[in-house]
Amino acid sequence: MSPVRRCSRTACGRPAVATLTYVYADSTAVLGPLATYAEPHCYDLCSEHSERLTAPRGWEVVRLATDSGPVRPSGDDLEALANAVREAARPQERAAGGGAARDIDPMEVARRGHLRVLRSPES
Ligand SMILES: [Zn+2]
To answer: What is the mean pLDDT of residues 68-80?
Structure first.
């Protein structure tokens, strides 16, 4: 069974093409590829609504490319992304951590100040 994912906006029944994830701790909304399964703080959006997305006052929006090659989003990816965003937002804390092991995917690089997240091209 693989029901078609629909846009979560009221009165919009278009197929979802992206998933919006809220990182409440950092007032950041991350718009990325459609998640493989729904999570409590995720909202599926169609192409139109994802393009028109506006964040609440005081929030920042990080948009991930959804058409830059094969991606296989998963819960782990979303969690890693949320961690990356959270870490990028706290450079001082990271510096204070010294050589502490990082538990995020090095492929995910979030730059909160520039509102962009870069993913290294697959080689
Ligand atoms: Zn929609």
So the answer is: 59
Q: 46: CA distance to ligand 1 center in Å? A: 4
- Tell me the one-letter amino acid at 116: R
Note if the pTM is more than 0.85.
no
Which candidate, 77, 81, 67, places its Cα nearest to that of 111?
81
Q: Rounded to the nearest whole angstrom, what is the distance from the C-alpha of residue 47 to the centroid of ligand 1? A: 7
Closest by CA to 35, choosing from 59, 19, 55, 21, is 19
Q: Which of 9, 6, 22, 5 is nearest to 49 (CA)?
A: 9
Q: Is the pLDDT of residue 119 over 60?
A: yes
